[in-house]
């Protein structure tokens, strides 16, 4: 399989008349298509920035970046990228169902392939059918995140970028959503880049975990977990090997912070 | 929402009526007993009698004011909304002309009114213009702020979905702006009536404003109060229309 992401010597920053900042500097990263990649890193190191440059929400200052073999711009304008924001970003004036349908209503001109109206299917998949006519403010945080994920999936992205999607949830709900997400990934094998602050979540979900460090923002640790997991990226949170892996990732994260 | 401390729905409906009723009764009987003369504050029953006696006169003066206020409300708010849309789509035009708009807003409408009447004469037009001017500025400000109030994440969501400009406007900026627009329209429902009446004070022989002036000079205080009641009913009517439309459009 080809590479979903190829970045080499990537510099990304924010221009500003007073203090322009370079966040990512000389970042190298290759991600094979179909991978579930977890991204860890101290706060402010540039994890969101990395996702945003891949999604063509900001432009790199220097270096090379290819997404699905093309420029981020052409991939984004073909609507091949799904983005799940940290704060769900549901539109408050739309019901859950209408929020899901947003990808069917806008940007249709740029689609090269028709997307199916899988609204009801995705509502059922994310256990939201009973809540479909509610407005976002009538949902719990976990329900909102499920709706945001369903909306991202409705566009049938070939690459799914998730920025701390479960950051605000209690552990029980988070664990359950982790399993739902893994099941979904096993069925579709969409490439997923998943940013999290939780080492346990990163190890449980990812086939591969990378750690970013700040100043300069680049990959400082990179672990392939396929050897410590069962086929299909399955593992038990209590498995001693997994627990040891988590400890190893913690050490890497501490070194990066 | 304000908590009503466990009052039953019936109590919530009946208590305001009792409150108003008790004040009216006090006004009817206590003020005269306290020696307040009728030419300063006529009793509610005297005001009500004016409606029965001079109904056609009151209505004949009500409609011009209503038409001026409604036309001014519509024109003023509509042009404010349009200008706000132009401004948020062209930062250049906004930078060039917003300061001019700001400057005009610092001129008190009362000072502007004689000029408007000089320009437009004595018909309904100058009153409509004054009502429109008075509605215009708050709606412009609120609409600009509303159209710009979508969050960075919401804009990024629309960009990820490759929306075009018109989709961005109709599906993000406009719905985002509606709550702020309507909070300004609610206020405009009262100020439009004020604008029309002020216009009539300065130069008119028709309308509630003219009636108020005439009644004052002729010491017909019951007629004066009846005209005031009608003006306030006009504002309430406009307000209710705004709120009804708002409920239809903003359902969340
Ligand atoms: N719009 C912006 N303009 C200027 N600087 C920014 C902007 N957004 C982020 N930054 C800076 O870029 C750096 C990286 O930000 P980023 O949001 O990518 O961090 P992060 O790793 O996602 O952090 P967190 O874990 O807290 O979400 C931070 O130092 C931040 O201050
Ligand atoms: Mg972040």
Automatic annotation (TrEMBL), chain A:
GO MF, one example: ATP hydrolysis activity
Membrane-spanning parts: none
Pfam families: ABC_tran (PF00005)
CDD domains (alphabetical): ABC_NrtD_SsuB_transporters (cd03293)
Keyword flag Cytoplasm: no
Gene3D superfamilies membership: P-loop containing nucleotide triphosphate hydrolases
KW Chaperone (keyword) present: no
Protein family (similarity comment): Belongs to the ABC transporter superfamily.
Name of the protein: ABC transporter ATP-binding protein
Organism: Allomesorhizobium camelthorni
Automatic annotation (TrEMBL), chain B:
Taxon lineage: Bacteria, Pseudomonadati, Pseudomonadota, Alphaproteobacteria, Hyphomicrobiales
Membrane disposition: Multi-pass membrane protein
Domain of life: Bacteria
GO biological process: transmembrane transport
Record's keyword annotation contains Transmembrane helix: yes
Similarity comment text for this entry: Belongs to the binding-protein-dependent transport system permease family.
Compartments, record wording: Cell membrane
Protein name: ABC transporter permease
Keyword Lipid metabolism: no
Residue span(s) of domain ABC transmembrane type-1: 62-246
Keywords: Cell membrane, Membrane, Transmembrane, Transmembrane helix, Transport
Segment forming the signal sequence: none
């Amino acid at each position: 399989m080809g590479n979903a992401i190829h970045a080499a010597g990537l510099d990304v920053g924010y221009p500003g008349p007073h203090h322009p900042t370079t966040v990512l500097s000389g970042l190298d990263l290759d991600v094979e298509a179909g991978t579930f990649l977890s991204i860890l890193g101290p706060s402010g190191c540039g994890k969101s920035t990395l996702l945003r440059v891949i999604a063509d929400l900001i432009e790199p200052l220097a270096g090379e970046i290819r997404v699905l073999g093309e420029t981020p711009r052409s991939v984004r304008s073909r609507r091949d990228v799904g983005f799940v924001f940290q704060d769900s970003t549901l539109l408050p004036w739309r019901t859950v169902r209408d929020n899901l349908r947003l990808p069917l209503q806008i940007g249709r001109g740029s689609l090269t392939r028709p997307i199916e109206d899988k609204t009801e299917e995705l509502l059922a998949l994310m256990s939201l059918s009973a809540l479909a006519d509610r407005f976002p403010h009538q949902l719990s945080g976990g329900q909102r995140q499920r709706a945001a994920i369903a909306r991202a999936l409705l566009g049938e992205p070939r690459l799914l970028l998730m920025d701390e999607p479960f950051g605000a949830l209690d552990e029980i709900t988070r664990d359950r959503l982790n399993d739902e997400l893994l099941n979904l990934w096993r069925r579709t094998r969409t490439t997923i880049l998943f940013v999290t602050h939780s080492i346990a979540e990163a190890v449980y979900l990812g086939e591969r975990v990378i750690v970013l460090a700040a100043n300069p923002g680049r990959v400082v640790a990179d672990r392939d977990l396929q050897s410590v997991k069962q086929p299909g990226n399955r593992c038990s949170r209590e498995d001693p090997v997994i627990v040891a892996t988590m400890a190893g990732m913690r050490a890497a994260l501490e070194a990066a912070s | 929402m304000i908590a009503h401390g466990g009052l039953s729905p019936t109590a919530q409906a009946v208590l305001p009526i009792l409150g108003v009723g008790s004040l009216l009764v006090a006004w009817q009987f206590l003020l005269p007993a306290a020696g307040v003369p009728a030419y300063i504050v006529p009793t509610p029953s005297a005001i009500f009698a004016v409606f029965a006696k001079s109904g056609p006169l009151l209505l004949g003066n009500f409609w011009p004011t209503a038409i001026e206020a409604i036309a001014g409300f519509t024109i003023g708010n509509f042009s404010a909304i349009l200008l706000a849309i132009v401004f948020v789509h062209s930062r250049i035009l906004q930078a060039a002309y917003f300061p001019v708009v700001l400057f005009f807003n610092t001129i008190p409408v009362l000072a502007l009114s004689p000029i408007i009447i000089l320009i437009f004469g004595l018909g309904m037009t100058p009153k409509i213009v004054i009502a429109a001017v008075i509605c215009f500025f708050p709606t412009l400000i609120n609409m600009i702020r509303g159209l710009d109030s979508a969050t960075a994440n919401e804009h990024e969501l629309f960009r990820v979905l490759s929306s075009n400009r018109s989709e961005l406007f109709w599906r993000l900026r406009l719905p985002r702006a509606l709550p702020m627009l309507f909070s300004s329209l609610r206020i405009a429902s009262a100020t439009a009536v004020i604008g029309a009446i002020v216009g009539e004070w300065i130069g008119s022989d028709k309308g509630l404003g003219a009636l108020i002036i005439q009644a004052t000079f002729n010491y017909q205080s019951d007629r004066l109060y009846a005209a005031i009641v009608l003006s306030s009913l006009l504002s309430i009517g406009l307000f209710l229309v705004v709120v009804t439309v708002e409920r239809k459009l903003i359902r969340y």
